Amino acid sequence: MRRAAVIAGLAAALAACSNDNTVITGPNNLTPPANLTYQLEPSGDPTTPEGILLRWDPTTDNNVTNYVVYSRSSSNAAWVRRAATTSASFEDRGTPDLQYEVTAQAQDGSESQPSNVVTVDASNQLDPPSQLVSFALNEAVQLSWSTDARLAAPALFAYYRVYSTDYDLDTNLCSANWVLEGTTVSEDFIVSGIPNGVPRCFTVSTISVDGHESDWATPVAATPRVDAHNELVFATQDHADSSGFAFLLASSGRFGVVLPGNRTDIDFRVDRHADGSMWMTPVRTGSVVTLFDTQPIADLTSIALAPESGFSAAAVQARAGYGYVFQTTQADGLHFAAMRVAFVGPTYVIFDWSYQTDPGNPMLLRVR
Length: 368
What we know:
Radius of gyration: 32 Å
Order of helices and strands: EHEEEEEEEEEEHEEEEEEEEEEEEEEEEE
Number of strands: 28
Shape: rod-shaped
Number of domains: 3
Structural class: mainly beta
Helix content: under 10%
Mean pLDDT: 90
Distance between the termini: 59 Å
Strand content: over 45%
Low-confidence stretches: 1-27
């Protein structure tokens, strides 16, 4: 029987039976705990939380020495004693039961009437974001995703969890070594401290107010790369000592180096033609360039992947607002670089650029 009134002489004997789930109700009319609530602890697997955290209002009854936590796996099953605690909270590790309740207990082992019953409500599970986008940065990746998961049930939404793992570019596969990167309440997140040239997969889940975790959003991959803004390179005809540019100067390992335009280890030099137009001429063997789009681009983030073809060693005109992609050959293979010309002056060009250190990896910025 779940609860039974017993005479005082039998109370001690019943309390000593560790396998007896009977609640001993004494004559002291103990005040039961109130406002029992639960919070699931997400694990990354929406079907298997790490546990459940129970909280309740502590009683002010001086006869209460501790609390007893009960649970059951279904609404028709018998209640099972889980633990006793002196605090007004309890963490039940592992897969939670369906229902929980708590009683207050006196020193003689008698217990109060139970608190309210809480039921782990699976219907509170939300959907994941339908779209996830990654932006490769310098030693970091920015993630952003759609608001649909939050807006579908604003009252149930609590926050998002962000995960990452290794990514194999050759097989286009994410490894199983997923780790939690952090949590956020907004639809964007920056994962920092990632070495440039190291590909990773990313995904996001939605957490409800009671801790239910959604399925994961479709993973995306990104590879951090070196970048810089407002690089200034002069025309050879005006300042030859600062008219060349190397995305990677292999002899020193430095990125984004402005050099004399007559060097043979630069990726390109800037030349001014007779009509005043400015041109970028590939120099080093293995350095070629292509126009990214026939229309101006908003910024460097518009260049997602290096094109598969169209590269040439011929000079290309530097036009403000336009994007370009360079392909260069280093000792470890092909590398790609993106560029957006910000301004073309009478004797110089100003541009933003990024460089992918992972050989053969065409990811320059954004992957959907």
